[in-house]
Amino acid sequence: MFWKSTYNEFIKIAAKPRSYIGLAAITALVSVILFAMKVDGLAYISFITASFEQTLSFQGNVLNGNLMAFIILQTLIIQIPLLVALVTGDLVSGEADMGSLRMLATKPISRTQLLLSKFLAGNAYTLIILLWLGVMALGFGWLLFGSGDMMILKSNGLVILQSDDVLWRFLSGFVIAYLALVTIATLSITLSCFTDNSIGPIVTTMAIIILFTIIGTLDVPVFDSIRPLLFTTHMASWRSFFDDPVPKQDIINSVVVLVVHIVALLGIALFKFNKKDILS
Amino acid sequence: MAQLNNMSEKIVEVKKLAKQFGKLTAVEDVSFDVYRGDVFGFLGPNGAGKSTTIRAMLSLITPSAGEIFLFGRELHKNRSYILSKIGCIVEKPDFYKYLSAEKNLEIFARISGSTVSKSKIHEMIEFVGLKGREKDKVGHFSHGMKQRLGIAQTILHDPDLIILDEPNTGLDPQGSIDIRNLILQLKNERNKTILLSSHILSEIEIIANRMVIIAKGRSVVQGNVAELLNKQDLIVYFEVDQTEKARQIISQKSQATVIGDIENNVIQLQIAHQDIPQINHWLTENGVKVYGIDSKRKLEDYFLKLVGKDVLEKHV
Predict the structure, then answer these.
(1) Cα(first)–Cα(last) distance of chain A, in Å?
(2) Contacts of A12 in chain B (CB under 8 A)
(3) Whose CB among A117, A258, B257, B291 lies 3.0–4.6 Å from B270's, allowing a Cys bridge?
(4) What is the mean pLDDT of residues A249-278?
C-alpha cells in the first residue's frame, strides 16, 4: 500500500503545473547567467581577480565550466528552497484545501504511510530539481565554456583546484545540498500538516529561512550559541568541498544538524497528521 | 430514543457518540444501528451533526466520547480492515481537477485495499453514465458529473457498505433523480448496504427502508421508515366554510380524532389516508363547502418541530 501510495504521489506531482515552475525557473536563471558570462565573463573575472593581478599571473582557461557551475550554484542555492517549498508545502495542505485529503484519508492506508509516501515523493521531486540544476550548471557550463582548473575566491584567500580534482567535489557538494533541500522540504511538509491553506506553508517556510539566515549572518554575540544549531547555517556546507583541505569535521557537523532537523520535523509532522481532525 | 428494529447482521453500531470542537458541541449523543442490506436514512437538518458523525465513522475525526463498531469490530483498532470494506462520499467528491476521470479512479483504486483492474474502472465509469468522458479532466466536469464519478469511486473495490453524505446537494432536479436511481441500482442490483445522509425527509422516504433522525447533535428516533412514516396515521387539514358544523358531522359519522381548529377555517384531523374521500363526501353532502385538503404525516410534523419550519418548507 505504501509504495502504491508513493506512486500516486509521484503521478500527482508530475501532473501538477506548478511542479514545472521550478524546472522552468532553473532553466531560465541558469540560461541568463551563462549568457551573461559568455558575453561579459572576462570582465567579471578581471573584476574578481583585480586585487591579485599584481602578485599573480593567471594563465589558461580561467572562465571555464567548473567555475560557471560553482558561481551558478552559489547564486541559485538561495532561490532553490522556494522552488522546492512551492511543491512540498502544498502536499498536505493543498489536498486539504482541495478536499481530496478527505477522500484519501477514508482509504485503508494508515495516515503514517500516507504522509511518508508524500514525504518520499516530495524528496524525489527535490532530487529532480537539484539534478536539473546540476545538469544545467555543470553540463551546459562545460558545453559552453569547456573544462579547466578551478579558481575560487574565498574570504580567506584564493583556492585553485585541478580540473581532475573537481568532479568528486561537485558530486559530494550535491549530496550535502540535497540534504539541505530535504530539510526545507520536510519543514514545508510539516507546516503543511498544520493548516488547510495551500499558500501558508510555502510563505511560512520562506519566512523561517529568511529569519534564520538573518540570525545566522548577524554578527551579534547573543546568537552565537544558537547559530550552529540553525539548519540555515549548514545549507551552504556544500561549498566546504571546494576548500583545500576539505574540512571533514565541519561537514560531518552539518550533516548531523541537517539529519536531526529532518528526523525531528518528520516526527512532528507524523504526530500532527495522525492526530489531525480532517474537516475540510 | 424510540426504536423499531428488524434483526439481521449488524454492520454499523454507533453508541453514544459525541464530538466537541473546542467549546462547540457538534455531536452530543448519537446512537444507531445499520443492518446488512439496509438503505439506511440518516436524517437531520443542516448542522444537526450528520457529517460529523459520518466523519467519525470514517476515522476522519476522533470522537470525544462514544463507540463505533463496523462489521462487528471497533473502528479505532481495526481502521484499515474496516475502511477496506467501505466506499464513501463525504459531503462532496473532491477529485484532482488536473487529472482525468480515469486517472482519478486509478489513484483511489490503488489505495482501496483491493486489486482493481482497468476493465473494472471502465465498467464503473459506464455504470455511472460517464462513458466517453473518462479521458476528460475532472476540472471540466459539472457538479452532477463529479457526483457520478464519486459514486464510481465508492464502488470500485466492491465494498460491503456505502456511505453517501448528502449526495444530492447542489444538484438540479434531474441530477437528483439520476443519483437516486444510481443508489437504488446499487441496492437492488449489487445488493449493497447503504447509509445515506440527508436533510430532506421525502428523499429518505423514497430510498431508505430504515432511518434515524438526529437533531441538535442527538439521535431522536430510529426505526423502519414505513412504520415511522405510517400512512395510517395522518394529520389532515380541511379548509371549510363552517368549522363547527364540520366538526359535528365528523364526530357523528367517523372515528376520526379532531385535533383542533386552526386559523382561517381549517380543522385538523388525525385520520387514515383512505378515509379522506369519505370525510370530504360527508362534509359536502351536508352542505359544508370544502375549499382545500392538505395532509402531513405525523413524523413530518414531528420532524418539522425538530428542525424548524423554514427547513421543511424549503425542502419537503
Answers:
(1) 24
(2) 96, 99, 107
(3) B257
(4) 94
